[in-house]
Amino acid sequence: MSKPIRLGYIDLSFHQASAAVVQAILEREGHEVVVSAFPHEEMFRRFGKEEFDLLVSAWLPDSHGAYLEPLMGGTRKLGVLYQPYCIWGVPDYVPESAVSEIADLLKPEVLARMDRTLQGINPGAGISRFSQAMVQAYGLVQAGYHFQPGSEAACFDGYEQAVREQRWLVVPLWHPQYLHHRYRIRALQEPMGLLGGADDATLLIRRDAEPRLSAQTLAILADLHLGNSVVTRIDHAIRKEGLDPLIAAREWLASRQ
Fold first, then answer.
1. Distance CA 86, CA 126 (A)
2. What mean pLDDT is predicted for residues 170-182?
3. What is the per-residue pLDDT across 44-89, written as a single tens digit (0 to 9) for each?
């Protein structure tokens, strides 16, 4: 009996959403799959130590390129699942005439209303590294702003609580992410380009694991493209509607047939 395929994903909800689709395809193709999740640096470290066969996914080149670069000798970029990008966003009830770009956060009338804490996720995420640099580069620290790394719950639930209370805040976020399914979050203009551009969310496979998958399975995975809106929708179904990730993935795959 062949060994299970070891599928790893970065421990954030939207990565779980896309990993569930990969898992559903592998199981449909007859493979047993063991799935595990770890934070960013830890996942790449374990992938490099050959603890996983596939990784969902590396955001390249900006967010995760430095993590992947030393591992490329034994790794194949199998396919691009979607095109993520990072934002600093505000709720749509914050007038665009008042806040349209990051420099506007320093206006006296904005300082009077805006929450000075930018609640983020774990410090190894690209958006966290970018945000730490941005509060310095845009002179926001001197005005009392600070980036606070934390959990998904602190960031996402905190945003939803602020919206219920109609508070002004900036959320360090990205596309795809389930909050975009329910809320209109306006991205602030960021002229220094510190948030990077759109990455390719790339499905990785260890080269020594390739012979365990058929040419047909490899081709299916290489051609798999979800897109930001699909990942956002599956992410919302899992996190806010309580759907099992694998069921959500199978329902999406069935809708394509």
1. 8
2. 96
3. 999 999 999 999 999 999 889 999 999 999 999 999 999 999 999 9
Other Cβ atoms within 10 Å of 96 Cβ, number: 12
Percentage of residues in the chain having pLDDT higher than 70: 99
Could you tell me if 194 and 130 are in contact, meaning their C-beta atoms sit under 8 angstroms apart?
Answer: yes
Q: At 90, is the secondary structure helix, strand, or coil?
A: strand
Are β-strands 117-119 and 185-187 bridged in parallel, bridged antiparallel, or unpaired? unpaired
Domain boundary among 187, 210, 236: 187
Q: Mean pLDDT in the chain?
A: 96
Tokens of 155: 């960031």
- pTM, full prediction: 0.89
Residue 192 domain-assigned (yes or no):
no
Domain limits at 151? Answer: 85-187
Give the sign of the dihedral formed by CA 34, CA 36, CA 40, CA 42: negative
Which residues, listed in sequence order, are joined to residue 186 by a DSSP beta bridge? 90
Domains identified in the chain, total number: 2
Residues 202-213, buried b or exposed e (16+ Cβ, 10 A)?
bbbbbeebeeeb
Give the CATH number for residue 168. 3.40.190.100
Kindly state whether residues 61 and 154 are assigned to the same domain: no
Say whether pLDDT at 230 is over 90: yes
How far does Cα 169 stand from its chain's mean position? Answer: 20
